[in-house]
Amino acid sequence: MDQFEPKIVAFVCNWCTYAGADLTGTSRLKYAHNVRIIRFPCTGRIDFLLLQQAFAKGADGIIVSGCHPNDCHYTSGNFHARRRWMVFRQMLENMGVEAERIVFSWVSAAEGAKWADLVNETVESIKKLGPYHKYQDMAKSLEEWEVTHE
Amino acid sequence: MARIGVFVCHCGENISATVDCDRVAENASGLPGVVHSVDYKYMCSDPGQTLIKEAIKEHKLTGVVVAACSPRMHEPTFRKACAEAGLNPFLCEMANVREHCSWVHEKTESTTQKAKDVVRLLVEKVKRNEALQPIKVPVTKKAVVIGGGVAGIQASLDIANGGHQVLLVEREPSIGGHMSQLSETFPTLDCSQCILTPRMVEVAQHPNITLWSYSEVIGLDGFIGNFTVKIRKKAKSIDEHLCTGCGLCTQKCPVRKIPSEFEQGLGTRPAIYTPFPQAVPNKPVIDKLNCTYYLKGRCKLCERVCPTQAIRFDQPDEIVEVQAGAIVLATGYDIKRTDFFPEYGYGKYKDVIDGLQFERLASASGPTGGMIRRPSDGQIPKNIVFVACAGSRDPAKGIEYCSKICCMYTAKHAMLYKHKVHDGTPYVFYMDIRAAGKDYDEFTRRAIEVDRTKYIRGRVSRIYEKEGKLVVVGADTLLGGQKVEIEADMVVLATASVANPGSEELAQIVHVSYDRYKFFAEAHPKLKPVETNTAGIFLAGACQAPKDIPESVSAASGAAAKVLGLFANDELTREPLVAVVNRMAPPLFSTCIGCFLCQPVCPYNAIEREEFKTRDGKLLKAVARINPGLCQGCGTCVALCRSKSIDLYGYSNKQIYTEVSALLDEALV
Amino acid sequence: MSHHEPLIRDSLSGKVLMNTEVKAERCYQCGKCSAGCPVVDQMDIPPSQLLRLLQTEIPSNDEKILRSHTIWLCLNCEMCIGRCPMEVDIPPMMDFLRSESIRRKMVNPKAGNIIAFHRSFLESIRYTGRLFELGLVLSYKSKTFHLFQDAGLAPEMIAKGKLGFIPERIKKVADMKRIFSRTLKKGVQS
Amino acid sequence: MKIGFYPGCSVDGGSREYKESCRALAKAYGIELESVPDWNCCGASAAHNLNRELALALPARILSLAEKAGMTDLLVPCAACYNRLMLTQHELMKDETLRKNISEVTGLEFKGTCSILNVVHWIQKWILPELPEKIKKPFDYKVACYYGCLLVRPHKVLKFDRPEDPQSLDEVMKLIGATPVDWAFKTECCGAGLSVSKTDVVADLSGKIVRDAVYRQADALIVACPMCHSNLDMRRREINGYLKQNVSLPVIYVTQAIGLALGIDRKELGLHRHFVPVNLPEKAEATK
Ligand SMILES: Cc1cc2nc3c(=O)[nH]c(=O)nc-3n(C[C@H](O)[C@H](O)[C@H](O)COP(=O)(O)OP(=O)(O)OC[C@H]3O[C@@H](n4cnc5c(N)ncnc54)[C@H](O)[C@@H]3O)c2cc1C
Ligand SMILES: Cc1cc2nc3c(=O)[nH]c(=O)nc-3n(C[C@H](O)[C@H](O)[C@H](O)COP(=O)(O)OP(=O)(O)OC[C@H]3O[C@@H](n4cnc5c(N)ncnc54)[C@H](O)[C@@H]3O)c2cc1C
Ligand code: SF4
Ligand code: SF4
Ligand code: SF4
Ligand code: SF4
Ligand code: SF4
Ligand code: SF4
Ligand code: SF4
Ligand code: SF4
Q1: Domains detected in chain D
Q2: What is the ipTM of this complex?
């Protein structure tokens, strides 16, 4: 079998982590290519059902990253995200998703190197966990949910 | 049917060195909905932009994806180009294939694949973008300044001199705030009244300023540019138009023993009074809680002596609504008093006083005519002890912060004392001398070297009275913690500066946040120090944190500059990336179930309640409504709403779910 | 936290933290404790300075603390903690330092009287369950070889019916034996 | 009415007048003070000076015995014992492992169900309600109420009164007709812990207390702790030496003062046991 290349989706906020990842680029730091970044105004916008959808559609791991606790561009969006994350993690665990498949981090606009490290570490740890297959179960519940939202 | 154009940039070699750009373009052309796809060396150059503009016209594009650098770099450029070609700018998206791809990966197949993926993702997103119009809101060019201390005065004057109307609302009968109580001010020792009074008079006479003293803000509605401020004008019991400020009434009023707030309880005032001689406005008010007529129904002496028949006992409070485009909060601070210091006998021993009381004693217009006399028996103290950090930097007492101004005013007090009592000895118990400011350390050094104040590094443990003296028990930590006992004639506690007692209530009325010490919170500690989280509401002076006069005034001018910047526009234009709660035809009105769980999570208080009623006023449904003037588009409410009734323009559910699907539906690597 | 641990564990301040939850670093050296301490004049190291020594985490300073007279003079009057702005709980820390000083055999020579008194006191409890005051006086006297300062008080106390001759014993003296033998480690005998 | 009673060694021994006056008061109210069966010494300062576990185990045994005897209210008149029992209960209640270990040492279960009352608590709860009708002879003196260290500190645990300038004893005194003076040494330490081993320190600390009370023209010092009492009363010779003057200010237990107001016999209150004779000024004697 080929070397397993995990698919990782990163949900990041526009003000801190997106800019931090830009800095990684301007600094020409290298990191694993497995990550795809999706931009949000704020981690507060991230609906955790989205993460569920990402797993259902075949992601092996997810990074959620925004501003440091007191630096949120919108003052408190990241706190709300954190709080919802606590609830969501419980739910995931109940569903049998290893919580380590979701990495919650803070990367500021000045932390280009941290972003590179975060991606590399996540890729490594997801490689260890192996591909994620269990999403079919979830896909069902997700479909039901999607009906109400299309 | 979507007609999307994809434009892949080489950025010279920056992208093309690791990403196979023409294959990315080619791949894109096969995506559903893409009708045009090209690559080019420099997209942001003039020819590059022309390429896009012409393609929009030629292919009747309904959406554009530029695969190039970070949108943080050139999104405005390309959106502008689209707009010039007649395409709504919000139908243009950028795929970041430089910072997030070519620069961070080696030249491999995976890198080109990543670029293809990102382009696909944005093509799917842009298909679901909506043409948005920037939000325009009109601006009422009138400011309400709340609080008339030095900060409120400065802000009012700056805005008024900028040519705009100001309404200054002051709670007390006069403006002036704490600065009007001060004797002389550090670091220059100029007389506080001398520099403040002209400003107060200027406020009173400025054609652009309306001053409502003895008034309070009791409600606030609306949003930036369009506030409605509800104000209670407390009854002063005089007709201000008739009163000439002659002062006969205050001289004749038989109730004379009311502790004067202005004199910090060291002097008295009558029931009809102006707080101090230079008060602005210089017209008295009747203190209803102490006036014999209000209490017992007789007296009316003031009415009899008033030459202009200005007294109005039956005057009611008045509630007025005012339109304003901006608000400046300048409600200042207070200092800690009373039972806070049982170990120092504060409130128990008359000669243990606080800093503001000392200011009154040292003030030429104060109760002792500027002689330092102790309150108990009027003696001139020969030994005086100043206790710094009294209650500040004291987690056990619940105040962890440094009050910032007390090191300086304590040094000032020691100096003023020494200047007036040449044979006396001032002692200062301190922990650190915090004198970081222009000419500040020089000032405290002068207190030590020239005026020979004895600074003792250590906190006072307790103060007790013994045979007419106050025994101050402290330690000298620079001598290893050796005990020091000073028999003082008077003790001055530099008590902590705290938020104004009414600040929490006011913050709730005007919807601004406050910190755990109840000081108003700035929007960003470094880069937005005079803004609040509520657009259009600004902070000036010590209501934000303990501040001295220079800082209060700088902040006030900063706030005024923000207001003037706002008033420079007739309309406000905002990016339309805001949240909306859906609406539909009755009987549903909205899928919103009216739980209002979204309300408290919004950092900008943008979520309001909208009620649908029948013609006879019966409530049919209450649903959330988002005020686009206030919403900043963080999306927190969107993620929170269980019934998925809120969506965010630019980052709608449809858009981001599609992004996720588009990304993962095909194999990545 | 993790990479600081070895440092913390080795020093006396680390031991204080582990045993009493008192964090010496909290102390910002204001001196309020020393200012209010009733016995500071007798102490060789005022309480605030003792905390400063702890903060240094230098072995010679740790030893200075354990050999100090201060830890034996502290009355546990709680004045310091009552007023400390940083809520540094000195009295339990003093308790710990005393037992540590005994354990490491670093007891200040001047503390002999004080320890002797405490030991006589505990001895009385150990054998009877209660304090036998006359016994305490006699035992303390024999321990210190001092002519008991309070000898003069005894006759008057007897006259006022304040000093009993027969030690009161609790019924289950065995309980005392059990408690003492299970709690007292080496170094604290009676 | 029966309530639990832990006299402690001093109150049972050298300071027996305190116990006598407590019992006399209780008798006047028909309250029976039931001693904790087979109680032991709380270990006082000696135990916690030398060993923490011992300092917890000794009070824990007492509390366990009281619990076993079904006592819910436990009067502990000695402020030092009260302090030790409260601290022990506090420590054991917040740490389950410690509680288990100590139970193992004492061989007795500990539940922490006893409500520990100091003498002022007891007076407030049981004596004050009927006090006004019972007063025969108002205690019309100027008094300096001395709280000492152990009744009010550490405040976080004891949560009794204010740690600085407490008022509860003063309030009780006012109710029996006394005039409390406002003075500066209410909570300064008298040096109890070093009473025997460092008498010079005690004379100095207690001396300052007595001097201020005299300066405020108090007729008596009111105390609620046998340690304070013995320092201020029995050590008067040393104190006088320190003050270089003979001070005859009597030191009276709060329970004795109330007893006097209720008209209880001086002997029953143990007033004859004091070193400094309790000769209150004539004026008040005349009012009886
Ligand atoms: C003892 C002492 C000495 C000092 N000496 C100096 C010195 O020498 N030099 C120096 O630079 N600084 C000094 N300061 C600091 C100085 O007082 C402050 O920097 C300054 O007063 C802050 O001005 P302000 O306008 O922000 O607040 P304030 O002076 O407190 O004014 C606030 C105003 O708002 C009004 N207000 C409050 N709430 C409401 C409401 N809800 N509605 C309407 N109005 C309201 C108040 O009545 C008041 O008029 C000293 C401070 C103290 C305590
Ligand atoms: C070691 C250090 C650490 C610091 N850390 C912090 C911190 O953590 N937090 C914090 O709040 N502050 C910090 N500061 C302070 C902070 O650097 C300053 O407050 C801030 O940079 C001041 O900004 P400025 O724009 O006034 O001045 P500057 O940053 O000095 O900018 C002045 C600009 O003017 C240009 N210039 C100068 N002369 C001319 C001329 N004649 N013509 C044209 N251009 C000219 C200069 O080239 C420069 O670009 C730190 C400072 C130092 C030294
Ligand atoms: S658009 Fe961006 S990527 Fe393209 S040439 Fe310009 S800077 Fe480079
Ligand atoms: S009516 Fe009131 S304010 Fe007027 S003189 Fe009498 S007391 Fe003073
Ligand atoms: S007497 Fe009349 S005119 Fe004069 S100050 Fe008083 S109210 Fe005004
Ligand atoms: S300014 Fe000085 S006196 Fe005031 S709290 Fe800070 S350090 Fe203490
Ligand atoms: S929008 Fe959603 S969260 Fe807000 S009130 Fe309506 S249903 Fe509740
Ligand atoms: S998007 Fe953010 S700012 Fe806008 S209403 Fe929702 S929570 Fe408030
Ligand atoms: S009072 Fe507290 S903070 Fe101050 S020196 Fe003593 S222990 Fe340290
Ligand atoms: S507890 Fe000890 S150190 Fe603290 S004040 Fe009392 S005697 Fe001094």
Answers
A1: 2-119 (1.20.1050.140), 134-287 (3.40.50.11810)
A2: 0.81
